[in-house]
Design brief:
By secondary structure, the protein is mostly helical. Helix 1 runs antiparallel to helix 5. It starts with a helix and ends in a 17-residue tail after the last helix. It is elongated and about 80 Å long. The mean pLDDT is about 90.
């Protein structure tokens, strides 16, 4: 049985909402991870942006200088501002969801590269990479749903008939 246009739009909107909620969770848990790192807690949530966390973690591990830490902090803030912008603006334009998908895809790629090149035990990040892939799937589904919503043409609004005075 084929869904009606209204039902299909509702399903697509739910998919976009799920992707946006995943992005909200990603941003929130990423910020919590930064706080945990600042306070020296040896734990982090996997549903998060990996680049800002590991960038700052690496600075702590190698006892980087002040300039390097400031640059890492500035890069972290820029990344979070971009993710927050994507979250806010994706409600109106698909472009922002696509941008977020690309950024998080790059984040997942950099996590994999980091895991297999810099860690002595890369297997320790496999679950984190799997979680990144799961979040990417949600973002891909949301982006595709947003695109389908954009392509679905809304029926034209009916304008009231103009009254024509035929007696003049």
């Amino acid at each position: 049985m084929e869904r009606t246009r209204k039902e299909r739009r509702a399903v697509l909107r739910r998919q976009v909402t799920c992707g946006r909620l995943a992005l909200l969770a990603l941003i929130g848990l990423s910020l919590i991870n930064q706080l945990l790192l600042i306070f020296g807690v040896n734990y982090h949530f996997w549903i998060s942006a990996a680049v800002p966390y590991y960038l700052n973690w690496f600075c702590v591990q190698v006892d980087a200088g002040a300039i390097t830490r400031v640059l890492a902090g500035a890069a972290t803030v820029m990344i979070y501002i971009t993710y927050i912008g994507c979250l806010v603006f994706s409600q109106k334009k698909q472009y922002w969801m696509t941008l977020c998908l690309g950024l998080y895809g790059l984040d997942a790629l950099l996590l994999a590269i980091f895991s297999f090149t810099l860690l002595s035990n890369p297997i320790s990040c496999l679950l984190e990479i799997a979680v990144h892939i799961g979040c990417l799937v949600l973002l891909v589904m949301a982006d595709q749903a947003a695109g389908q919503l954009n392509r679905m043409k809304r029926p034209p609004r009916r304008r009231p008939l103009e009254r024509v005075n035929t007696y003049e």
